[in-house]
Design brief:
heterodimer, A: 116 residues, alpha+beta, 4 helices, 14% strand, globular, B: 885 residues, eight-stranded mixed beta sheet, six-stranded mixed beta barrel
Chain lengths: 116, 885
């Protein structure tokens, strides 16, 4: 395990899943996990298993839907896709995260002189 | 908001679809791993490597599943279900413990729920009328002279009705009814019917609406009104088979055609509220000429909104002293007094203390039950300490263990609650159908929603009470200590024992309080049975007789009545087996009326003139009742309507009128008429067994007008055996004679003491239950400590202790615990006894017999409870005991 991998903040995994589905369309659990790993450049500490708790949570909220289908290698898999409500939710989340990172960026970029 | 709801619904749905959802997740995860392995193989890893890396990346599958379940279902409920499953498994394994615990809890909770239902019905629940909290009861302050001195005349009632400003309405009824004053004819055999006369606004004032038909109209209480009658629901069902066309029809009551105005709802039971222990079949408008009968009415009012009892009382204090006894005869004078109280207080106020005692008694029972169960579960917890140490070593947190133990006690408690409810249902059903108990509202007794809520409350409370001690003891234990402990430890002892012994001592003390309370009430009841009533109720019975009283002129009426009664009594006396017979219009403890009494020539100051209970009787009545003639003679058939007017007084009356002098031959004024005293008879209890005797006057039927007629016969045979021959004789004289039943005089006495009997039976029952539970508790603890000391006893016996010495030491231990408990209990009992002093009759709260009896009883029970384990201890074989470990 890489010593500098990021711990996932509460709620960030859900946003990542939503965004992945928006970008990739219908995808099974493994695909989502792999995609997040790839995009994050293996910077995130992700037990792939935890993705399923996130998926069921999002499903209960009606933000994603699931359907059984077959993978490219002809395996039976559950495919998740974003719902309309999920799209709206993602837009909200996205705005929130952008604001937060913006603020965090500004705070962290604060010049040393400001304190004196 | 909608999202929240959707999530809750989804979670609940997921909770119930655990299995399919787990299956889906499993196959999803399998695909996941397969895909990962495939990809790894493509990357050129060896099959083992590919698989290993896929698993590593995935993380713990069990954790993933757990997270999945938590995210989708109801984790708290999952834990609860787990605890419950575990609980049921343990309890099934410990079947004997479970059975005993549920049984004990069932008894404790059942008695509590049953008594709560009684208390709720009589004391807590509002009366079954509209806005019952605004209803008030108005009667005169208690004085000698029974009902006549607390009732009001029709004129006084009407004047108060008009002049008061604090009541929306005032109504009244006449309490001078007999067991069956009315006779229903024209429908088979003449039937006896019980009825009460009311003012016509009675139902409107109480807010009772007839189930069918209409209430009485104001006209129906006026002069020359067409007679009407209201049927009670049960009478309608029984006598008219629930015939819906009955309203508006005419029925024949007392040979008069009467229109049925309506039928009352089943929720209205006049007897259960106003005349406990009796059933009222019909309700009729008060007859117009009642205004000439003197004091006849008890009043019920409805407060105007915002008016208080105190204001009404203050107004009554001003109005009543100026009300006329008879508006047409101002010379009869003015002056009444009135006490205003809420109707609820009147109906159940006197019972409050008794009910609270009853409630406390079952509360004590529940405490004893909890102590017992604490003991049992402590013993059980000791046996399970390893199990719990193991669980906490495996990672169970303290909270989880406490939760597990509380779940167990909760499950036991709920089991007990179910059993207790069944028990309470039976008990309330039984009590509700004891029509002869003179307690108000008893017929409405049932286990209702409030009782169910109460059940839940006490079941939960007891679960916490008896579950918490063992829970904390267990959970607080040092794991290492517990795991190291070797079975029946020898050193674990002292501290554990102290808790258990404290529990036993408190149990004995509680039982002690129960026994003393019950003992005192029981002694009071026995005293009550011993009271000299002034007559002998056994071997006597009464039957209502009908006679033709149609003559108009007073003296003629008297002569005619005398002739009819003389013939009746002569013929009935001639029936074989009947020793004595006589007729009176009223029977003691049944109903009463009183008239003014005075020695001729003596002027009494106002409010000091004596009132006497008046009985209009035939010769032979005194003998038939088993009363003792102290001086002079009985009335005779020679005392005719036109001969000298005579009276027999009781001892109290003779002493009051002519203290220290011979009353025979003197002239007494009874109800305004001059009579010569010809005899003095023993005092009887007229109104209640616990009330002292008043003044009595016995007038001959030829010279005074009786209100109804009760024939009393004295016989060694059971009255039922004579019923048909007596009835045949009466029917021969008067074909219109009702199909009345013999009432044993003892039954009238029993009815009078039934409330006390009711409380004594219940309290004694509860005390016995408490005693049994306490003895079980003693037995359990001693027996448990003997088991744990097996080794120790074995060593002592190996060192030369004899069986007798071992027995003695166990019994000494038991007795010491019992004595400490008794000492504490006795101290508490003194306080409790003082609290119930007002409920006692002829018994001091410090009654030595009761206290001594209690000590003796508890000591012997403790001895027995200790002897059984002691015997077992003395039979321990040292060899086996020492080898056991």
């Amino acid at each position: 395990m890489g010593k500098t991998k990021l711990d996932l903040l509460q709620g960030t995994l859900d946003v990542m899943v939503l965004r992945t589905l928006e970008a990739m369309g219908a995808l099974h659990g493994y695909g989502i996990a792999r995609r997040i790993e790839q995009v994050s450049g293996n910077e995130v500490l992700l037990n792939q298993g935890t993705i399923y708790a996130s998926l069921v949570r999002l499903q209960h909220r009606g933000w994603i839907s699931a359907e059984w289908g077959t993978s490219s290698t002809n395996r039976k898999a559950k495919f998740y896709s974003l719902t309309k409500r999920g799209c709206r939710q993602l837009a909200e989340d996205e705005a929130y995260w952008r604001r937060l990172t913006d603020v965090m960026g500004r705070v962290l970029a604060m010049e040393e002189g400001g304190r004196r | 908001m909608r999202d929240q709801l959707r999530r809750v619904v989804n979670r609940i749905r997921a909770f119930f679809r655990k299995r399919p959802l787990d299956g889906e997740l499993d196959s999803e995860m399998a695909t996941h791993l397969a895909l990962a392995i495939e990809e790894n193989l493509q990357r050129g890893l060896s099959p083992e490597e590919a698989r290993r890396e896929a698993l590593v990346k995935f993380g713990g599958t069990e954790q993933a599943k757990e997270q999945h379940r938590e995210a989708r279902g109801l984790p708290a409920l999952d834990v609860l279900m787990q605890d419950l499953r575990y609980t049921f498994r343990t309890l099934r394994r410990d079947r004997a413990f479970t059975l005993i615990a549920v049984l004990i809890l069932g008894l404790g909770i059942g008695t509590n729920v049953a008594v709560f239902s009684v208390v709720n019905t009589i004391l807590l629940r509002p009366l079954p009328f509209q806005d019952p909290q605004r209803l008030v009861w108005i009667e005169g302050p208690p004085r000698e002279g029974g009902l006549s001195s607390v009732t009001y005349s029709v004129d006084a009632f009407e004047e108060y009705q008009q002049r008061n400003h604090s009541l929306d309405a005032v109504t009244a009824y006449m309490p001078f009814y007999g067991p069956s004053d009315y006779k229903l004819t024209g429908r088979g055999e003449p039937q006896p019917v019980s009825g009460v006369s009311l003012e016509c606004n009675f139902f409107q004032t109480l807010g009772v609406h007839p189930m069918m038909g209409r209430p009485f109209t104001p006209e129906e209480c006026r002069k020359n009104a067409a007679p009407a009658v209201m049927l009670s629901y049960f009478f309608w069902k029984r006598q008219f088979a629930g015939d819906r066309s009955i309203t508006g029809q005419a029925i024949t009551l007392n040979n008069t055609s009467v229109t049925v105005a309506g039928v009352l709802p089943s929720t209205f039971d006049f007897g259960s509220v106003f005349a406990p222990g009796t059933k009222m079949d019909i309700l009729v408008p008060a007859p117009y000429d009642m205004r000439n009968w003197g004091n006849t009415l008890l009043l019920i009012g409805r407060l105007k909104p915002g008016i208080t009892l105190a204001q009404t009382q203050a107004e009554a204090n001003l109005l009543f002293p100026h009300l006329y006894h008879n508006a047409a005869r101002p010379d009869f004078g003015i002056g009444y007094e009135a006490q205003v109280q809420s109707l609820k207080d009147h109906v159940s106020g006197k019972l409050r203390r008794s009910l609270i005692v009853l409630w406390s008694a079952v509360g004590l029972i529940l405490l004893i039950v909890c102590v017992n169960l604490s003991n049992l579960s402590l013993a059980r917890a000791a046996a399970r300490s390893k199990e719990f140490a193991m669980r906490s070593a495996l990672g169970a947190v303290r909270g989880r263990l406490i939760r597990q133990l509380l779940t167990e006690s909760m499950v036991l408690s709920m089991g007990g609650a179910v059993l207790g409810l069944a028990f309470a249902f039976l008990m309330t059903f039984y009590l509700a159908h004891q029509g002869s108990i003179a307690l108000p509202l008893l017929s409405e007794l049932r286990v209702d929603g409030a009782a169910l809520a109460w059940t839940l409350l006490i079941a939960t409370a007891s679960a916490v009470l008896f579950g918490l001690a063992p829970a904390f003891r267990m959970a607080g234990k040092d794991i290492q200590e517990a795991l190291k402990e070797s079975g029946h430890g020898t050193t674990e002892g002292r501290k554990h024992d102290r808790v258990r012994f404290t529990l036993v001592v408190s149990e004995v003390a509680l039982a002690c309080v129960l026994l003393v309370g019950a003992g005192l009430l029981l002694r009071s009841f026995l005293r009550l049975l011993d009271v000299d009533l002034g007559f002998q109720p056994d071997h006597a019975a009464a039957i209502s007789v009908d006679y033709d009283d149609s003559a108009t002129n007073g003296a003629q009426q008297g002569a005619r009545r005398g002739a009819i009664f003389e013939e009746m009594v002569r013929r009935v006396r001639a029936i074989p087996g009947i020793e004595d017979a006589g007729i009176s219009d009223m029977l003691p403890l049944d109903r009463n009326r009183s008239w003014g009494l005075g020695a001729k020539g003596v002027i009494y100051r106002q409010n000091e003139s004596p009132d006497a209970f008046v009985y209009v009787v035939t010769p032979g009545y005194l003998a038939a009742m088993g009363m003792h003639l102290r001086e002079g003679r009985d009335l005779s058939w020679a005392d005719r309507a036109d001969s000298e007017h005579v009276v027999i007084l009781n001892e109290a009356a003779a002493k009051r009128l002519w203290p220290g002098q011979n009353p025979l031959g003197r002239i007494a004024e009874v109800g305004g008429g001059d009579t010569t005293v010809v005899g003095v008879v023993s005092d009887v209890r007229e109104t209640g067994v616990e009330d002292s005797s008043g003044l009595d006057a016995y007038l001959p039927v030829t010279q005074a007008g009786p209100v109804g007629a009760e024939m009393v016969v004295r016989t060694k045979l059971p009255p039922d055996a004579l019923a048909s021959s007596v009835m045949k004789t009466l029917r021969a004289l008067n074909p219109g004679q009702r199909a009345a039943e013999f009432r044993p005089i003892q039954q009238i006495v029993d009815h009078a003491i039934s409330p006390r009997r009711f409380f004594v039976m219940l309290v004694s029952g509860f005390a016995s239950l408490g005693l049994i539970l306490a003895s079980l508790g003693i037995y359990g603890v001693i027996s448990y400590s003997v088991t744990r000391q097996t080794q120790e006893i074995g060593i002592r016996m190996a060192l030369g202790a004899t069986a007798g010495q071992v027995q003695l030491s166990v019994i000494r231990n038991t007795l010491r615990l019992a004595l400490v408990g008794i000492a504490l209990g006795t101290a508490a009992s003194f306080a409790v006894a003082r609290g119930i002093a007002s409920l006692l009759f002829g018994t001091k709260p410090t009654d030595p017999v009761t206290f001594a009896g209690m000590v003796l009883l508890l000591c012997s029970v403790a001895l027995i409870a200790g002897y059984i384990p002691a015997r077992r201890a003395s039979r321990i074989d040292p060899m086996i005991a020492l080898r056991a470990n």
